[in-house]
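Here is a complete protein record:
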Amino acid sequence: MEAASENKRVAFVTGATSGLGLAISRSLIDIGFIVYGAGRRKPSLDLPDTYAYVQTDVALHESVHKSRDFVLSQQSHIDLLVCAAGFGISGSIEDTPIDSAIDQFNVNFFGVARVVCAFLPGMREQGRGRIIIIGSIAGKTGMPFQAYYSASKFALEGFVESLRYEVRRFNIEACIVEPGDFKTGFTGSRQKIIAPESPYYNQFERVISVQEHDEIHGLDPAKLGERIARLAVSKRLPARLTIGPLFERLAVWIRRILPDAWFEAFYRMYYHL
């Protein structure tokens, strides 16, 4: 890792060892950031010496604070916090054990809260900072058989809106980015909680096949990384930004203007429900 410097911009990125988090880290490095990439497993590829892997489990308070202390022992400041850690479960609401839903929220929502709360004091003291939270289009419109994943992302929408009001006076900005489908293998790697004998099984299989098809034909994660890098150095952060294939961005827009019954009919048709 490059030595500490007051002139270098420093970022802490969770979920930075694969998928969107890794793409974001690479793009930040390309524009001159020192990046501390947090994750549970070290990335299996070589990265520049301006990237340092920090083993972190966002589901554990002690792990998050240990990682923060490590970064601040090497750097005098943190300019950018990107929360991209997360995972997905899929299955019907009825078939999903509540313990599995709690695990989903513990990472996707409370994991974000842990990281933000750990780094906010330092940002307040230095009088500046930027926080970018990776949400999802699934946090804008509920997805069939992804109820708890969608709910965790909906929760982040409210969290970031509230955060923006609270930290503005400290010259800290916050933004939620809502990605659509990117070619990360995320959908295919979801934990599927459903049995063949479930009354929802046939519907579930049809929906998941559509979702997996959409991801296979999604965008290159590098596009998201490049957009986040531009946000990181932009004049001001927007409250939210939707990024993804045109069809999915249009769906979010249509959701705002169509009556609920019409939009639900559209989704039922799209997912063969």
User: Anything to note?
Assistant: The domain at 10-270 is CATH 3.40.50.720 (Rossmann fold).
